[in-house]
Amino acid sequence: MDQMVKPAKLWNRDFILLLQGHAVSVFGDVLYSIAIGFWVFEKTGSTAMMGLMSSISMFVSMFLQPFSGAIVDRSNRKHIIVLTDLLRGILMIGVGYFAIQGQLGIPMVLVTAFVAALCGVFFSPATMTVFVDLVPNHELVRAQSLSSGTNSLISLIGKGVSGALLAFFGIGTMIVINGVSFLFSALSEAFIRIPDGVKQGQPISVKHVLNDVVQGAKDTIATPGLNILIICALLTNFLGSGYMSLLIPLSIQKGLSTPEYGLFVASGSLAAVLGMMLMGIVKIPVKYKMKIFFGAFTLQSVVYIFGFMGYGFLWLTTAFFVGDFLNVIGNAILNATMILAIPREKRATIIGFIASFSIGGIALSTLAYGFLAEYIDLSLISIVGTILAYFALLPVLVNKGIAKMMIDENQ
CB 362: neighbour CB atoms within 10 A? Predict the structure, then answer.
């Protein structure tokens, strides 16, 4: 067990090791997701199958994340982080080998998605709580922006070169690259000094885990504003997020080539980087936060609808670039408000419940869009879904509890 004093500065050895290891695995994951997405669509031509593949990890996270968080709180987080990345690395290299040999099949892809999601459901809460321990309290928001910005930049680069790499190397090699990136990440994480968790070493049993989960649920319901946030997150994600898993058939429908698709998805990452840079530089006065929050999500919905109505690379890329930029601004305000409003000792548990509900909405939406797109024009159902999602979000935009959280953030 590692014993250490909380760092006095942001750029410390352990934070850098965690940041670099995660950044490399993000790059590999981007290449894998695009490669396997094209492979599934080429093999099956089914949007329903793409929706099923994308939703597996979401359903695993939705059902297991509250329980995995409770287990992580009582376990050695360093062991969990290193072992889950190591397992994913070995898994991806094995799958890549079968793909190179021409023996990759849909069942293997689905099993791989399930195992990788199972690793991720333990990896995510472990790294989230470690992340908080590796930076000074007053640098937490800045550290999150740096981490998110770095990962978005890496994602941007990965998406930008994915089309060319896929054409040059092929699907199998792309999957192997993802596996190697996980092994590198595990190696970096092995050298991080991670302090013991508050509950580390305490007994792990079904009873203990269930008690922790129940208490987390009570804390979530009791926190002002978060109860309505959970309901609206589920509805909003269910109604308006499913089309994201079908961007490949949507881009084909809009006339994009494979290289243009790579640039199109990369533009979304660029928008995210620019949005986070803006939010990191500009300090928004309290009195304008709710207005910007409301305006960002309203304009985002309008821009996405125009994007679905158009055709061609320039039209689609421009619309989604602006929409993704506005989405980052709105979510940055909401997420920073939420994480600072939740008591530190309850932060991981409560955020886990919110994430579980949110992911549940995305998973259900992914399945629904996948099956509906077999019978209804994808642009049409995306427009209708975007409109309904905006109305589902309105209670959050006008909720007094959440507005108070935004004010309290700066007190």
Answer: 25
